[in-house]
Design brief:
The chain is an alpha/beta fold. The chain is built from eleven helices and nine strands. Helix 1 crosses helix 2. The longest helix is centred in the N-terminal third of the chain and has 11 residues.
Length: 222
Amino acid sequence: WKPIFDKYNLTKRGLLGEGYEFDSLQYDQYVRKGAEQYITHDLELRAFLESLPQRKVIFTNAPESSANEILELLGVADLFEHVLGTEFLRNKVCKPERKSFEMMLNFLGVHTHEQRSRVCYFEDSFKNLIAGKNEWGFKTVFVKGPTMSTEGHSEEELSQFDAVVRVKVGMALRESMPVCGNSNMFIGIYLTGDSTNVHDKNLFTMRPMMFTLINCVHDEND
């Protein structure tokens, strides 16, 4: 599995790329089923998101249907301007590939260096966040979770980002993250990703705060 994922950045895309044949919709439904057993409305998360006046958009390697389900369960779906996932990316590219960011930014009307520098990008994937920082000049917030160790990175490497989220998202976080107030847009991940660990409620609860001030489902691969 890992060699395929390392090559394609997304398990389903890798399986298809390697010639495996299966029903894409059934695959998505199977690996992401059961979210309603672990996720409920999060009033603290909603209050946090409502306190941010900037545009908020979900940018995920997961299907839009899955992201929308999670956002509905959390009770924050109406707070996001767009959900951009695998359908938007046409199942051809995914984060951290440059083309995926180009498609997202063009769609959102973010074209200049100045505009990109006002984007606050939340991620739990080190490689995805590095792409946002180094290639696009985003302000970056790392959401700490199991993905960090899965990707082989250490605590010491997190100092290069503007902020690190280590606790549940809530109003207290807003006070400790001045980077949020200096942005025009939030871009983030969504919560439920590629194939594993879909039942970690902490990740489900934490992840949805991420995305482009222009712009969460879970899983270590989103």
